[in-house]
Amino acid sequence: MDARFTAEQDEIRRTVREVLAGRCGPEDVRAAVRTDAGHDPALWATLAEQLGLPGLALPEVYGGAGCTTTELALAAEEIGRILAPSPLLSTAVLAAPLLLALGTDAQRNDLLPRIASGELTAALAVPGTDLATALDLVGGNRGDWAGGGRAGGIQARRADGAWRLYGEVGQVLGGHSAGLLVVAAHAGGFARSRTLLFLVREDGVRTRQTALDGTRPCARVQLRDVEAELLGEDGADVPGALASAGNRAAAVLACEAVGAADRALERTVEYVRQREQFGRAIGSFQAVKHRLADVYVRVQAARSAAYYAAWATVQGERAGGLALAQALEALRTAAAEGIQLHGGIGFTWEHEAHLYFKRAAGDELLFGPVHRLRAHAADTAGLFEQRDVAI
């Protein structure tokens, strides 16, 4: 493994940082969150049309840049530094890989070029609060998380040659404004139970929900006898495709969390250098130095794990879940220490420190918690399997 970034990768990081630096400060983030879309459409147009971020990891034949997960993860790291709300996660990280993996030629040719250009946004709708399970991050995703033929979840029925969906999804990232929903639904009842993915185009009742982390807008989606299009072919390995997409998403999310943790640490270091107590900057006290040194070590360790996970996806290895656990823990520590060392001002709504703390807590609720990410990674690797030992 060559740990050095290429000139192209460094240029992606630099360009994204420069664009965001002048257009997405803390007040801009708060203003974007309060809009109906939950993000700044003008900024999204810039990220999509000028930088090509939605199509960064899509093949060139579909209008993408033909890059890998690593390039997308580096862009996400810069976005995570300033917590810029955008449809990038829901569209390019969660939905697009499923369209690419399972879609028919007609579906790919129709949808992926529009996603790559930023014209179309998408969201993945998974029943209940099982997004992390469906993505095979905190538990096996071949169980009954999609409904299992019982009440709850999303049920799919075929009638008169068309698929109809029934049910409700409570937490859909970006679902209130997405032009396309990729819906996981249960089909076949008990006789031929299986999980399928369906495409729903701007149908259903969508209600934006109040979220702990406003930079991750979620929606409740109600599907009442809604016509849907099957993604790909019946019989496709949907759990396998979700697990593969989940591994890549975890690597991107880990880099995003590292970017947020790094920025939270930077802001705290800047503050303790300026804040004086007993006639000297509080950053000069040994206890403060030690606490920030511990945070720095956590952030750098998480960065190494996140970069490796992004690189490993190209090699077909699964390291995303473990890297995400490391990154979320680093972000939670950096945000908590930042609030404490900022003192009273860190607890106010006016200060940006609480935005990073909410991102840390919100991402653990959506994609964790950390201990389950680690436990599932250990189970997948067979770390604690009992083996017969010859005596």
Automatic annotation (TrEMBL):
Q: Which UniProt keywords apply?
A: FAD, Flavoprotein, Oxidoreductase
Q: What EC number(s) would the UniProt record show?
A: 1.-.-.-
Do the record's keywords include Oxidoreductase? yes
- Protein name, UniProt field: Acyl-CoA dehydrogenase family protein
Domain called Acyl-CoA dehydrogenase/oxidase N-terminal: residue spans? 6-119
**What InterPro entries would the database entry show?**
Acyl-CoA_Oxase/DH_mid-dom_sf, AcylCo_DH-like_C, AcylCo_DH/oxidase_C, AcylCoA_DH/ox_N, AcylCoA_DH/ox_N_sf, AcylCoA_DH/oxidase_NM_dom_sf
In its UniProt record, a GO molecular function of this protein is:
oxidoreductase activity
Question: Mind telling me which residue stretches traverse the membrane in this protein?
Answer: none
Residues forming the Acyl-CoA dehydrogenase/oxidase C-terminal domain are 248-374
- Which stretch is the leader sequence? none
Which family does the entry's similarity section mention? Belongs to the acyl-CoA dehydrogenase family.
State its cofactor.
Answer: FAD
